[in-house]
Design brief:
The complex is a heterodimer of chains A (279) and B (277).
Chain A (H helix, E strand, L loop, with lengths): L7 E5 L4 H12 L3 E6 L16 H13 L4 E5 L5 H15 L4 E4 L15 H29 L3 E6 L12 H21 L4 E8 L10 H7 L8 H9 L11 H12 L10 E4 L7
Helix pairs in contact in A: 1-2, 1-8, 3-4, 4-5
Chain B lengths: L7 E5 L4 H12 L3 E6 L14 H13 L4 E5 L5 H15 L4 E4 L15 H11 L1 H17 L3 E6 L12 H21 L4 E8 L10 H7 L8 H11 L9 H12 L10 E4 L7
Helix pairs in contact in B: 1-2, 1-9, 3-5, 4-6, 7-8
Classes of the chains: A alpha/beta (279), B alpha/beta (277).
Amino acid sequence: MGRVDGKVAFITGAARGQGRSHALRLAQEGADIIAVDIAESIPGMDKFYPGATEEDLAETVRQVEALDRRIVATKADVRDYDALKSALDAGVAELGHVDIVSANAGIFAFGEQSQLVTDAEWEMVNDINAKGVWHTAKAVIPHLIEQGTGGSIILTSSTAGLKGTPNVVAYTASKHAVVGIMRTLALELAPHRIRVNTVHPTGVATDMILNEATFRLFMPDVEHPTKEQAAPIFETTNALPIPWVEPIDISNAVLFLASDEARYVTGTELKVDAGYTIK
Amino acid sequence: MGRVEGKVAFITGAARGQGRSHALRLAQEGADIIAIDYLEDLPENPYPPATEEDLVETVRQVEALDRRIIASKADVRDFDALKAAVDDGVAQLGRLDIVSANAGIAGRPNLSEDVPEDEWMRMIDINLNGVWRTAKAAIPHLKAGGRGGSIILTSSDAGLFPYANISHYVSAKHGVVGLMRTLALELAPDFIRVNSVHPTTVDTLMVQNDGIYRLFRPDLENPTKDDFAQAAVAMNALPIPWVEAVDISNAVLFLASDESRYITGVPLPVDAGAAIK
């Protein structure tokens, strides 16, 4: 018996990285999946890291189906509420219900002191990371309330949702906003036994972090910093002697919060951060 | 394959309530148990103490799950007794991986200026100092094992925000958070993780008693469990009066298991949203 047997999970940003990992971990424990991803390059983001592709999303589908679970995957942008809602509604129509929500889609743009950040970058980051999370909740809440069987919404924030991060103002603001969204939704939805929590990863070993642009944030004087050079510097940010965590570590926290084992956990910031925020 | 298969867990206050529930949940998932409890009456505590029969029942239930358990009578205020219990348990079971510092009392409610000095001191000595002694006794074994470990301290929602009339309890439970954060930093180089759990009201004898009913329903002469439930539900965001011991055990299990291998320094509320109300 899986820990989320018979449930359906709606996951944004599911083409790769943490989102794919969440889809697979929940599917391993018995859930069917409704997956969305923008699955294309986002203008202005290429200088940081490449966007997910349609092939990535197809690979998530393949791997979930290999676990003998069903998955409805759609290309959709969390900034486009109508597209997001259509994707979710189609998934619910096919899979019958929705019980778990992982608002995982997000981008990481960075590198300038706050006074140098452009309006375009601020708006892009906050549109995706904060408004996109609200859109995700807005689309799914009517389903959860109408079903009347409770539910678990997990919003992906960050250690940057709890602490300041120099030269990362738009992202830090967007991830703090996610905490405010979580706390408010937790109160609004508690009467319906719908739980809302955040997860707060430290650096996770995905394309979003393991790239030369991010390494340079930590090593501004090195022209082409490598993963090997970055690891010891990343390690200094954590209390546990590790440079970063793996996507599966966030997925295990998401699984716990999604399952009935956490049936009375709501309004909580669950850090998966190797002690980053207590250092 | 259990989620803590092959590990050994040291649990204080294991005779009944949350402590017994933790022992059973961890044993269900493959752990052997070192259990202690005080089993004696405490002055001015508004509910009956756990008994030797209670601890024997914990032993019986763990053994019924085909796991081993070494149980002994020890007081978390007595470091030597605590250390002897852990040392003996580790000698018999071969290792130590998980620590649940769960032993605690509710004490008698009073305004801060009316708390008798001995009751204040006893509260701090059990609910805060006892947690420190538990860690102190266990840490050398965790370090010697060289496999890391997970220490889970039982705090409370009263470790995150205040409740009137139980300042000794609130102070001790806040203190546990400071201890947790400091231990997490000190032990991180050895991959020993330290986190706290923060229950709202749990349906055990520690809260299901007349003293607690009167604390929360001062408006009634002889408040009942149902009267308390009305006050208790108002404290939570989810529409429930209290959680069950197994809900705390599931959080302890998650924090004890390798699923949370990189979670440390975290206060984890299991509180039906009480902290955000």
